[in-house]
Amino acid sequence: MTAHAPATTMTVWSQSRYGGPEVLTAATVARPVAGDGEVVVDVAAAALNSADVRIMRGDPLLVRLAFGLRRPRTAVPGRDVAGVVSAVGAGVTAWRVGDRVAGELSGGGLGDAVAAPADRLVAVPDGLDLAVAATLPLAGGTAWQALDLARVSEGSRVLVVGAGGGVGTFAVRLAVLRGAEVDALCGARAVPVVAALGARRAEDYRGADLAAWEADAYDAVIDIAGSTPLRTLRRLVRAGGAVALVSGGSNRVTGPLGRILRAAVLSIGARRALRPLAAVARPEITARLLALAASGELVPPVERTWSLSEARAAMAHVDAGHTVGKVVVVR
Fold this sequence. Notes:
Elements: E1 9-14, E2 25-30, E3 38-48, H1 50-57, H2 64-67, E4 80-88, E5 100-104, E6 113-117, E7 121-123, H3 130-134, H4 136-149, E8 157-161, H5 166-177, E9 181-186, H6 191-196, E10 201-204, E11 218-223, H7 230-235, E12 237-245, H8 257-266, E13 273-276, H9 283-295, E14 302-307, H10 311-319, E15 326-330
Parallel strand pairs: 8-9, 8-11, 9-10, 11-12, 12-13, 14-15
Antiparallel strand pairs: 1-2, 3-4, 3-6, 3-15, 4-5, 5-7
Helix pairs in contact: 4-5, 4-9
């Protein structure tokens, strides 16, 4: 039998300028090489997030200071990745070829393979689908950090505003797993999904007037939608409680910065804190999420799975802003 030479090229979806999904084009490029402290991961699945859309569009303009003034520094989108290690760079001892891994990267998931810092990856438990593993790092990690920020624990009463998307569905389920009693507001299509995650009360946000809801009713509010006035959110929590602000602000230039500054001012001397979240990649949290998923306690709702050849359409779906749960691109 004749041995086949390993592939030297691969397919990726990349962009050379900021814009909508139309800027993404399929290209054939050289396969990555593992540098010092890196491994090459053959991508099995990449989950898409609203962060991928913001970076693709360079919107708000403030994000371009971090990701590139004229175009994204990482041309290939896809921050949440799961796959199999195919090459190991110098200085890497934690991983071997064939290991199943997942992690939040700076991009590169919408391709056949990606070079990744070894310390950004965690092992995927045997038996856990890599497509499920890919949904966890960014959205699950953000929800976990929001619950920590709001000090959600057993017995807490929690309201999740904007519970239908990736971060929202994780926030609901993880709060339930902590022993909290959870109410949730989301889009109408997401109501049955959120209820199935364990929410005591799941309602369509369009029929909810939070200004008329009972004051001091919650220990914590997790605000993902970012459109409710801060004073309205604050009146919902009891003294000593907190509002975790995951997103918000529609300013084309500064995005959430104005809302964050208002929250800081309103929190001066207040007994009901408004706490903006600055979520970061936390591999140790990803590992805990993977363990929960492997045990069956955490089953991320996946709205749709797309093939790599359909990656532009998958990004367009997320860009439209009405995703329930997660969208995953698989090879």
